[in-house]
Amino acid sequence: MVEDWRQRWQQGRIGFHREAVHPALERHWPGLGVDEGAKVLVPLCGKSLDMRWLADRGHPVLGIELAEEAIEQFLAEGAGEVSRYHHAHFAVSRQGNVELWCGDFFHLHIDEAAEIGAFYDRAALIALPEAARQRYAFHLAQLLPPGARGLLITLTRAPGDSGGPPYEVTADEVHERFSPNFEVTHLEDGEREPGSGFRESIWKLVRRGPGR
Ligand SMILES: C[S@@+](CC[C@H](N)C(=O)[O-])C[C@H]1O[C@@H](n2cnc3c(N)ncnc32)[C@H](O)[C@@H]1O
């Protein structure tokens, strides 16, 4: 799995990467009620431009990505000095308000995730096969304090198409995996894309706390 992703980056097979900020982020982030200046966790971040958008809005960003190639491309395409250090299982690079941790998201420990107030998942959950998705939902919940919130973007595939990645994640699956630890609100369904047959759904998740 790890090797597959690294190979994809090495060979430039990154059709998932968007050359523009995701419109659902621009549309829904302002209404989520995220605290000003809250640090945003971006799991499985690739070299997403959405991280710059969040940073430009005053959020420190913590992106977690396996592939060194993705991180180096993000830094090369950005402006500003890069500082680097090592922390636990991760090689860390920082450029402006964006910190990229190179390593496995599942190795990120709650102590290292201190001060995270929000998250953004576009093409992270849906990049994982079924067995890893339950682990992902649980791990994300462990890293977030009560009240932390974020956007989740899932997709369904054309009827009869069970390929992946990206894997189909239905509304039932979102509720099943996240409701035990999050308040789950469905915000929007996109149009089905004519070529791929993919259709995105946008969700707001708020980490429940004791008594919520
Ligand atoms: C489908 S891409 C999406 C990237 C980004 N979120 C975007 O919207 O462009 C999934 C990314 O997750 C990375 N990845 C896969 N498994 C991972 C893991 N366990 N920990 C960290 N990164 C991982 C892959 O290298 C790949 O860049």
UniProtKB/TrEMBL annotation:
<dbReference type="GO" id="GO:0005737">
    <property type="term" value="C:cytoplasm"/>
</dbReference>
<dbReference type="InterPro" id="IPR025835">
    <property type="entry name" value="Thiopurine_S-MeTrfase"/>
</dbReference>
<dbReference type="GO" id="GO:0010038">
    <property type="term" value="P:response to metal ion"/>
</dbReference>
<feature type="binding site">
    <location>
        <position position="122"/>
    </location>
    <ligand>
        <name>S-adenosyl-L-methionine</name>
    </ligand>
</feature>
<dbReference type="InterPro" id="IPR029063">
    <property type="entry name" value="SAM-dependent_MTases_sf"/>
</dbReference>
<keyword id="KW-0963">Cytoplasm</keyword>
<dbReference type="GO" id="GO:0008119">
    <property type="term" value="F:thiopurine S-methyltransferase activity"/>
</dbReference>
<protein>
    <recommendedName>
        <fullName>Thiopurine S-methyltransferase</fullName>
        <ecNumber>2.1.1.67</ecNumber>
    </recommendedName>
</protein>
<dbReference type="Pfam" id="PF05724">
    <property type="entry name" value="TPMT"/>
</dbReference>
<feature type="binding site">
    <location>
        <position position="9"/>
    </location>
    <ligand>
        <name>S-adenosyl-L-methionine</name>
    </ligand>
</feature>
<keyword id="KW-0489">Methyltransferase</keyword>
<keyword id="KW-0949">S-adenosyl-L-methionine</keyword>
<dbReference type="InterPro" id="IPR008854">
    <property type="entry name" value="TPMT"/>
</dbReference>
<dbReference type="InterPro" id="IPR022474">
    <property type="entry name" value="Thiopur_S-MeTfrase_Se/Te_detox"/>
</dbReference>
<feature type="binding site">
    <location>
        <position position="65"/>
    </location>
    <ligand>
        <name>S-adenosyl-L-methionine</name>
    </ligand>
</feature>
<dbReference type="GO" id="GO:0032259">
    <property type="term" value="P:methylation"/>
</dbReference>
<keyword id="KW-0808">Transferase</keyword>
<comment type="similarity">
    <text>Belongs to the class I-like SAM-binding methyltransferase superfamily. TPMT family.</text>
</comment>
<feature type="binding site">
    <location>
        <position position="44"/>
    </location>
    <ligand>
        <name>S-adenosyl-L-methionine</name>
    </ligand>
</feature>
